[in-house]
Write a structure and sequence with these properties.
- By secondary structure, the protein is of the alpha/beta class.
- 49% of the residues lie in helices and 19% in strands.
- It folds into two domains: 8-119, Anticodon-binding domain (Rossmann fold, 3-Layer(aba) Sandwich); 121-160, no CATH class.
- The longest helix is centred in the middle third of the chain and has 26 residues, at 95-120.
- It contains six helices and seven strands; from the N terminus they run βαβαβαββαβαβα.
- β1 (8-12), α1 (19-33) and β2 form a beta-alpha-beta unit.
- Residues 128-162 form the Proline-tRNA ligase class II C-terminal domain.
- GO terms for molecular function: ATP binding; proline-tRNA ligase activity.
- It is an enzyme of class 6 (ligase).
- This is proline--tRNA ligase.
C-alpha cells in the first residue's frame, strides 16, 4: 500500500434514479480521502461494478471503497481489502481513521507474508550435484558457493538453465 499508485479505489454502485447523488457522495469522499491517500473514483459507464472490482483488484489497488444508495441511506461505505477479501461497513465519520488503519494492516500483512515466503524458500547447499537437484525440483533461492569465474557461471547456466 505504501508504494501503490492508487491506494483506494472508489467504486460507486449506481442506478439510474440515484446515479447523480451517488456520484456526488463519491466525489465528496474522494476529496476527504485525497488529503491523506492516493485515491481515484471509477465513474466509467458500460461496466458492471463486479467488472470494475475485478479490474482494480488485478491492478493491485489495496483497498476498494464501495458506495451505493443503501450505503448512503445508512451513512456508511463498504471497504474491501485486496489481501484478504474481508469486507467491512464503516460509518463515514470514521472513514479516514479506518482507511489508515486498514492500509497499515495490509502493509504489515503483505510484508509478513512475503518475509515468511522468502524464509521458507531459501535452500542452502555446498554440493554442486545437490544444487542441480534443488534447481530441478524446487522453487525459490539457493545459497551456495561459487568460484567467481565466468567459466563456472557459464557451466551452471548451461547445465541447470538457471
Amino acid at each position: 500500500p505504501k508504494v501503490a499508485p492508487v491506494q483506494v479505489i472508489i467504486v460507486p454502485i449506481m442506478f439510474d434514479k440515484t446515479k447523480k447523488e451517488v456520484l456526488e457522495q463519491a466525489e465528496s469522499i474522494r476529496i476527504v480521502l485525497k488529503k491523506d491517500f492516493r485515491v481515484e473514483i471509477d465513474t466509467r459507464d458500460g461496466y458492471t461494478p463486479g467488472w470494475k472490482f475485478n479490474e482494480w483488484e488485478m491492478r493491485g489497488v489495496p483497498l476498494r471503497l464501495e458506495i451505493g444508495p443503501k450505503d448512503m441511506a445508512q451513512g456508511q461505505v463498504m471497504l474491501v481489502r485486496r489481501d484478504t477479501g474481508e469486507k467491512v461497513a464503516v460509518k463515514e465519520e470514521n472513514l479516514v481513521e479506518t482507511v489508515k488503519e486498514l492500509l497499515d494492516n495490509i502493509q504489515e500483512n503483505l510484508f509478513t507474508g512475503a518475509k515468511k515466503f522468502l524464509e521458507e524458500n531459501i535452500r542452502e547447499t555446498s554440493d554442486y550435484n545437490e544444487f542441480k537437484k534443488i534447481i530441478e525440483k524446487q522453487r525459490g533461492l539457493i545459497k551456495t558457493y561459487w568460484c567467481g569465474s565466468e567459466d563456472c557461471e557459464d557451466k551452471i547456466k548451461e547445465e541447470t538453465k538457471a
